[in-house]
Amino acid sequence: MNLITYDPFRELRSLQEEVNRVFSSNLNRSSETGLGRGAWNPSVDIFENKDQIVLEAELPGLSPEDVNISIENNVLTIHGERRFEKKDDGENFHRVERSYGSFTRSFTLPPTVSSENVAANFDNGVLRLELAKREEAKPRRIEIKAGASSPKTIETNAKTQSVG
What is the pLDDT, as a whole number, of residue 151? Predict the structure, then answer.
């Protein structure tokens, strides 16, 4: 016999998804008519390896001078602006689909990140930020010696408090 778990919030979530879908389709239509200018957010990928957290933001059409990066109270903020450059040489636009205007993206940094050691690189419209992890947050190996047998090695993360 299969047990089915009752979720009292399922219908509420379904209603919220429907409302979000309606509003997002209306916002997309407004950007087609030109009303959505000034409201855009660049796409961002965030990943980590053992030494750092890396953030990559797509900023096509921008230069490094158009972007400001700051860290305050463990919050990383990327701010910039993409300007619409219309030329007065008789060009008539039939459709403008790209978004223009200013943007701000903010990310709360985990306590494992050192805000003093950040490297920023801008290449082919992609901003890459490398945020070094604190030494105490990096994984380390602890060797355990058990009597006369050969030593054993256990890998730990900084989140692990004890070996048991």
Answer: 59
